[in-house]
Design brief:
The protein has 168 residues and is an alpha+beta fold. The chain is 35% helix and 30% strand. The protein has helices at residues 2-20, 57-67, 70-76, 79-85, 101-104, 157-167; strands at residues 32-35, 42-45, 90-98, 108-109, 113-121, 124-134, 139-144, 149-153. The protein has a six-stranded mixed β-sheet, sandwiched between helices. The chain starts with a helix and ends with a helix.
């Protein structure tokens, strides 16, 4: 029984750290997608114009690919209101992995761009969905935890062309 509590505590801490890592002071100058409390619309917070030169447009395009996808919209529709109703603060999108983790301020090195949708509460953050954009295959995936596999999902293909133009 005691071992089970320790395991649950460990995974809770790891999931909180994964979402919290993107909100550190290192994330200054990065585009953030936030669902404002008590509203139904997402707000894209743009960084200060003086920092625009430091931002990598590739990560911005991939984030746009994600947040404009029908699946992302389906998953987040009404989610912010539900989180607030349950005592939460908001929802957010976190970049966990990137081919350029230092430049993109991602948590780890990855061949793909890996994002997590987080529910933010005063005492914890919960990861609710994971997405991956493979720039080589030009495909956006949702991670299906039940089947332990990436499932391709639809997205705006013109953004993939924009990515190729700016990032290759």
């Amino acid at each position: 029984m005691n071992t089970t509590k320790i395991i649950i505590l460990f995974f809770s801490i790891v999931s909180v750290y994964a979402c919290n890592n993107q909100q550190s002071n290192k994330a200054e100058g990065k585009v953030h997608v936030v669902i404002a409390p008590n509203t139904k619309q997402s707000i894209i917070k743009e960084p200060d114009k003086t920092l625009q030169k430091e931002l990598k447009p590739c990560e911005q395009i991939v984030k746009e690919i994600l947040i404009t996808s029908p699946r992302y919209k389906q998953l987040t529709k009404g989610l912010n209101e539900a989180v607030i109703k349950n005592g939460g603060l908001s929802i957010g999108v976190s970049l966990e992995g990137s081919p350029n983790p230092k430049q993109d301020k991602a948590w780890r090195l990855s061949k793909t761009y890996d994002y997590t949708i987080c529910e933010k509460y005063p005492d914890r953050q919960l990861n609710t969905a994971r997405f991956t954009y493979n720039q080589y295959k030009k495909q956006l995936y949702e991670y299906d935890m039940a089947d332990n596999q990436l499932k391709p999902i639809e997205f705006d293909r013109t953004l993939s062309i924009k990515f190729d133009t700016l990032c290759r």
